[in-house]
UniProtKB/TrEMBL annotation:
<dbReference type="InterPro" id="IPR044821">
    <property type="entry name" value="At1g28695/At4g15970-like"/>
</dbReference>
<dbReference type="InterPro" id="IPR005069">
    <property type="entry name" value="Nucl-diP-sugar_transferase"/>
</dbReference>
<protein>
    <recommendedName>
        <fullName>Nucleotide-diphospho-sugar transferase domain-containing protein</fullName>
    </recommendedName>
</protein>
<feature type="domain" description="Nucleotide-diphospho-sugar transferase">
    <location>
        <begin position="125"/>
        <end position="324"/>
    </location>
</feature>
<keyword id="KW-0812">Transmembrane</keyword>
<dbReference type="Pfam" id="PF03407">
    <property type="entry name" value="Nucleotid_trans"/>
</dbReference>
<keyword id="KW-0472">Membrane</keyword>
<feature type="transmembrane region" description="Helical">
    <location>
        <begin position="12"/>
        <end position="35"/>
    </location>
</feature>
<keyword id="KW-1133">Transmembrane helix</keyword>
Amino acid sequence: MAIGLNSKKRNGGVSHSASFLLGALLPTILLFFLASDRVGERLASIFISSLGNGSAHQMISHANLSSAEKDMQEERFPGLAELLPKVATEDGTVIVTSVNEAWAAPGSLLDLFREGFKNGEEIAHLLNHTLIVAVDPGALSHCEAVHPHCYLLEVTSANVSSANRFFTETYLELVWAKLSLQQRVLQLGYNYLFTDVDIMWLRNPFRHISLYADMVISTDRFNGDVEALTNAPNTGFYYVKSTKRTVEMLRRWRAARSRFPPTHDQAVFNEIKAELAAGELHIKFMFLDTTLFDGFCQFHGEMDRVCTMHANCCIGLENKVHDLRNMAADWKNYTSRVTLLEKRSEESRWTFPAKCEASMGHR
């Protein structure tokens, strides 16, 4: 959708009327796009790129930060601003996940995560747009051995490198640390899709993410209405568009931690989502159907449409790895079948995540 500023007639002459109209309209159109705070929308990105001035995220980076704030953020997240352009898609979107040493170790969740992309349906290229955030030096070392885009965000809590169980103090520090980095990604003008590393990607999820939403989020249990705030959100998988309002949304989300202590980011988000949607920010949320973005909480079992499989409602690293390995084997068996009829046979179903189901009874 490029605008031809030097369009000519077939005889080589310039159309004066066309040039006049374009010259009159162009400032108006440009103001329309730049006035919108929805800076991450693809139309704005494509339009600005077509003028030869770079992408939208390059133009609005740091727009609302003072020099002191910029320096402080750059000191807190050294090298991030230089790394993101190498990872981002053409429309300025970065896939982000985070790991500690236990999750990144060979044979653990990071290997299964990367395997999902490689064995999925035409999604291997998305690994090139994935930033793996390591929260300790051991995780960084494992990451750099297998992936080109790794970033160290050290979390200083004790035992951060171990297989931290749900709701422990260290686990809480890990999940809250990811939000500070994500807020910085938005401030730099990039959209992001955050994914837990215990999610197996199978098909391209961007086909189901609405550009009209500020935030698109997965669910533990989906009630049938993509806009209903009564859905049970899961903050292990969500897309956020880079706007002034979403930067403020992340700030308020992090600040709300003190209002609901001690708990994790998902529970706090569930408490404040109505405030964010109804207040002056007027955040537009959309919730993802679990038939497409499946998980162990509301397990469906079908394989012919699912984009991702999340080892949620599961306690213990070993249980997650065991059941996801079964899923990976199921997927390989499914994709090896040649015809659509074969793939839709009764045998084309996921192995039930028995170990994760049992883990929930011994919390």
